[in-house]
Design a protein that fits this description.
Layout: E1 8-9, E2 28-29, E3 45-47, E4 50-59, E5 78-82, E6 98-100, E7 116-126, E8 137-142, E9 145-146, E10 148-153, E11 156-162, E12 168-171, E13 181-188, E14 197-198, E15 201-203, E16 206-207, E17 211-216, E18 224-231, E19 236-243, E20 247-251, E21 256-259, E22 264-267, E23 279-285, E24 289-294, E25 299-302, E26 305-308, E27 311-312, E28 315-319, H1 333-345, E29 350-352, H2 360-369, E30 372-376, E31 380-381, H3 400-414, E32 420-424, H4 433-445, E33 450-452, E34 465-468, H5 472-479, H6 487-490, E35 494-499, H7 510-519, E36 523-528, E37 536-538, E38 542-544, H8 572-580, E39 584-588, E40 593-598, E41 608-616, E42 619-626, E43 636-640, E44 653-661, E45 673-682, E46 696-697, E47 701-704, E48 707-710, E49 716-719, E50 722-730, H9 737-740, H10 749-756, E51 761-770, E52 775-783, E53 789-798, E54 802-812, E55 821-828, E56 833-840, E57 853-860, E58 877-885, E59 888-901, H11 905-910, E60 923-931, E61 954-962
């Protein structure tokens, strides 16, 4: 490969620069052919990251190119960090981020872009370090620039490029000087390339990945391709490293020393996401020694299944955009490592790099720690749906060279990663000849992986049938091969490349999806949308989302739909997903035996230790280890539990069985919990209360046991001296993002509920009756302007110290919609510490509580809240037997959902950001008999029918008592 590029010299000033390249559909000029990326070798490198001089212009042609000339004085310029986005720096002085899901934030007239095109001129001055070799050549590598860049070195124009999330290298050895080098880069926010990068994320211009100067010694390899296959029958691997210059391949652990291009076959341990065995090697040429990390594995399409090393795999994956709440898409290695470790610790085994190739170091981490990867091309043209895909670039031959360039830069950069098992053509780009050309090129270049693209429903160009957000019933039909479609499609495996949209509270129903996946061989799992909330750290809003920067068009908090919050704190959705996909299944009925099944695809259970605990009312009475065989993948065993301890305390008893890491691993510490289950041993005794004396009345109050009530309204006033306010039936919840959704024409429950008036229910008092042993308060709860209502009867009984409330609810009228919730709420004048026995430690709803473990917990009112970026219903602890706070104890019959907040549901419902919520003087407690499920209808199906909450006759009870201080 030649490392010399001719160029033109920057002008000295005055002339209007030519910016035709900005709207040129070609990928650019001057860049070297794409090649394999590697982190380091023995060749010298110089990072050009750091503070750069920066000037922002409002248009692409506002300034000439004299800034690139040697000797230009940029003393008055601003400074920005590289890697970085200029709109994420400067406290707004350099413009603001823009968020759209799929709408282009400029008129759609390809390849034209607006005249108002923010353009950032960047200057970096550098000297070559001592000892920089004088022989060979050198290249400058840009790993990521959005969206179009033109580059000069020492006054010479060396080229321009598009393809924001792809590497571009330029030969510069003939232009370098020992000292006083000036690298000039002009970056345009909008370009023809922007039409190919409509990827449901913030539009963030800048040089946001590394810039590196690399020495290229004479005789070094420009490119090489590591082929490392595995024969699972013979347990042998075959290695061949193709290089564009001759050299030798060394793998000491395997005693390999062969010439490039020469295959060698040896016994090896294979690479899988569960057992990521890498062999360290070297590619040695006359000019360079390049470290290799080799993983032996074979990916095939066989028997209608995607198989790795002879076995079908089940993807338990997530879509991952790159994000940092302060730095945007400029991620450092430790942030990437944090992502991978979080994924491994939460049982994920796969990543789809939505919707572009990630920083290349991320794939090194996937190789090292073990994650299957769908590597996706930097391509999405989703905004063309607004015009029924007319003028879509992927079906316009003028754009095909740019599409092929993007495909090649992805494949060539990432081809040596064993973690990459599929190439994806892109996302939501419709269909067209350009995609076919990409698929044909990829198949021809790399036959060792499958090709994926969700938009190809006929599977003309792809090797898997992929969909997004297909509902449970359709997925099951596909699993049963009842879905129809082309003959080719019916022979292919199925994956949900996106499902379980994790926006706000949710996603609900993922356990139901997992049961379907595991029931049908053709279904090879899926990828939750998505990994992280793209909230931007904001001084007054906490985290900002779409519209918070005054964008003309935006899609609100649709950009906050991740399994982790912007600061990478796991959300309840990630905790739920970890439980749903756990790789060990432990089942039983509590009668003395558990069935343990190895749900891994490749590894046995020798790395795990099993423990049991016998718990009564949430307290561990006895615990010990459980002897489980080292089951191979798919195997099961019946394992006997010990006898329950004799003479233990009475109460509800549960067996808790856990699978833990037996030793430290690369991604988790010893005793890290991988899987668990709880099994009933003794049923919970329900609270009992024998009514004592009946209610008595004074002029203002009614007295019953430890409680007092308003004599006119029957409203509860105190229990054992604890003031209680506003106790009444509650049917409203602050609507979730999924309640607000109406994906694919589905019912929008929030709209239905608000139209009916469930958020503004009026409570009419129909009667207060003092009986021989009970106080009965009859009410009708209904919205204005509607005839439907709920007749709610509160029946109070008591003994000397405890007060029982039985709530009976009868629907009145023709109810055609489910209720958001059904329970009671009331206020306490003060409360902070909270104790409860029931589900936890985090929140759980009818279709999101697989991860809820029954135990005793303690918290504070503030810590009970889940900090969704857009405030909404949150924080319910499910299946609570009893709870204590503010001087009260509440026992439920049956179990209940428990919430406590320092603001009302109405205040929560009205808030747009967490900073809108201000603590009041009252703690509001909600005791739910039930709630509507959550679903994932912000982008996907709503709650399944079994998680609906119909308005029907219902009765539930609570027993209140004062606690001792």
């Amino acid at each position: 490969m030649s490392f010399r590029t001719s160029g033109t010299t920057a002008t000295s000033g005055g002339a209007t620069p030519s910016v035709d390249y900005v709207e040129d559909v070609s990928p650019g000029r001057g860049a070297l052919a794409p090649r394999a990326w590697y982190a380091s070798s023995d060749a010298r490198t110089l990072s050009l990251n750091g503070d750069w001089s920066f000037r922002l212009s409002p248009t692409a042609d506002a300034e000439d190119d004299s800034f690139a000339a040697e000797g230009y004085d940029a003393g008055g310029w601003d400074r920005v960090a590289v890697p970085g986005h200029w709109v994420m720096q400067g406290d707004g002085a350099f413009g603001s981020p823009i968020y759209t899901n799929h709408l282009y934030p400029f008129p759609v007239d390809p390849p034209r872009v607006p005249s108002e095109n923010p353009t950032g001129d960047h200057l970096r001055y550098f000297d070559l370090p001592d000892g920089w070799p004088s022989d060979g050549g050198a290249v400058i590598r840009f790993d990521g620039v959005e969206s179009c860049a033109r580059v000069w070195l020492n006054g010479t124009d060396i080229g321009e490029f598009k393809g924001s999330r792809l590497p571009h290298e330029f030969a510069v050895g003939h232009l370098l000087k020992p000292a006083g080098n000036v690298l000039a880069v002009r970056v345009h926010q909008w370009s023809a390339g922007s039409y190919l990068e409509d990827q449901d994320q913030w539009w963030l211009p800048g040089i946001f990945r590394d810039v590196t100067l690399l020495h290229r010694p004479a005789g070094s390899a420009a490119d090489f391709f590591v082929h490392a296959s595995y024969d699972h029958v013979g347990g042998i691997g075959t290695l061949r490293v193709d290089s564009d210059v001759d050299g030798r391949v060394l793998v000491p652990a395997l005693d390999i020393d062969v010439a490039t291009g020469e295959p060698v076959t040896v016994p090896v341990q294979p690479w899988t996401a569960e057992t990521p065995r890498l062999y360290d090697g070297e590619l040695v040429t006359a000019g360079e020694r390049v470290p290799l990390r080799i993983g032996f594995r074979t990916v095939v399409l066989e028997d209608g299944l995607l198989k790795v090393n002879g076995k079908a795999v089940l993807f338990k994956g997530v879509n991952r955009h790159e994000w940092h709440p302060v730095k945007g898409r400029a991620l450092d290695l430790e942030t990437m490592r944090e992502d991978v470790l979080l994924m491994k610790r939460h049982n994920l085994n796969a990543v789809r790099t939505s919707h572009y190739p990630p920083h290349p170091a991320f794939l090194d981490l996937c190789d090292e720690y073990g994650l299957w990867v769908i590597d996706e091309c930097d391509l999405e043209t989703h905004g063309f749906t607004e015009q029924n895909w007319r003028d879509n670039p992927v079906d316009d031959d003028r754009w095909t060279p740019a599409l092929l360039d993007r495909a090649a830069r992805m494949v060539e950069r990432d081809k040596n990663h064993p973690s990459v098992v599929m190439w994806s053509l892109g996302n939501e780009a419709g269909t067209g000849r350009g995609l076919t050309a990409m698929a044909e090129w990829i198949h021809g270049r790399d036959g060792s992986r499958l090709v994926h693209y969700e938009g190809d429903w006929d599977c003309r160009d792809t090797d898997v049938y992929s969909r997004m957000y297909a509902d449970h019933a359709e997925v099951e039909r596909i699993g049963k091969r009842l879905d129809g479609g082309t003959h080719k499609r019916r022979q292919l495996p199925f994956i949900q490349c996106e499902y379980g949209h994790a926006m706000g509270n949710g996603p609900g129903g993922i356990a139901d999806y997992q049961r379907v996946f595991e029931a049908h061989e053709r279904l090879q799992g899926g990828f939750i949308w998505e990994w992280i909330d793209h909230g931007i750290k904001h001084p007054t809003l906490g985290y900002a989302y779409g519209g918070d920067f005054g964008e003309e068009l935006h899609d609100g908090n649709f950009v906050c739909d991740g399994l982790v919050f912007p600061d990478r704190t796991p959300s309840p959705g990630l905790i739920e997903f970890k439980k749903v996909i756990e790789p060990v299944r432990i089942e039983g009925d509590g009668t003395g035996t558990v069935r343990v099944r190895n749900a891994y695809d490749f590894q046995d259970l020798s790395s795990l230790a099993f423990e049991w605990a016998y718990e009564v009312d949430g307290k561990t009475i006895e615990a010990g280890t459980l002897s489980v065989p080292d089951l191979r993948p798919g195997e099961s065993a019946e394992v006997k539990l010990p006898q329950p301890p004799a003479g233990g305390p009475a109460g509800e008893a549960l067996w808790t069985v856990r699978a833990l890491l037996a030793e430290d691993t690369a991604w988790g510490r010893k005793d890290h919990q991988v899987a668990w289950t709880q099994l009933p041993a003794v049923e919970r005794p329900l609270p009992t209360l024998v009514p004592g004396d009946g209610p008595t009345a004074s002029e203002r109050l009614i007295y019953l046991g430890p409680a007092s009530f308003d004599v006119r309204t029957g409203a509860l006033k105190t229990i054992g001296g604890v003031e209680v306010t506003g106790l009444r039936l509650d049917v409203w919840r602050a609507t979730t993002d999924n309640d607000e959704g109406a994906w694919n024409g589905n019912t929008c429950y929030s709209r239905l509920w608000r139209e009916l008036g469930l958020h503004r229910m009026q409570h009419r008092l129909d009667g207060v009756e003092l009986g021989a042993e009970a106080l009965t308060v009859r009410t009708r709860v209904a919205p204005a302007a509607r005839e439907v209502g709920l007749r709610a009867t509160y029946r109070w009984t008591a003994d000397d110290t405890r007060l029982r409330l039985t709530v009976s609810v009868e629907p009145d009228g023709d109810w055609t919609v489910p209720l958001p919730r059904l329970g009671i709420r009331f206020g306490l004048s003060s409360a902070n510490a909270v104790r409860w026995y029931g589900g936890g430690p985090g929140e759980g709803y009818p279709d999101t509580k697989s991860a809820s473990m029954v135990s005793r917990y303690h918290s504070t009112v503030d810590d009970l809240q889940t900090p969704y970026v857009r405030p909404q219903e949150n924080g319910v602890r499910p299946d609570v037997r009893w709870a204590e706070l503010g001087g009260l104890r509440i026992d439920g019959e049956p179990e209940f959902g428990f919430t406590a907040r320092r603001w009302t549901t109405e205040q929560l419902d009205a808030a747009a950001h967490l900073t809108d919520l201000q603590a009041g003087d009252t703690v509001w407690v909600t005791l739910d008999h039930d709630q509507m499920g959550i679903g994932s209808q912000s982008c996907g199906p709503g709650p399944l029918p079994q998680y609906h909450l119909p308005a029907e006759p219902t009765e539930f009870s609570f027993v209140f008592s004062a606690t001792r201080s």
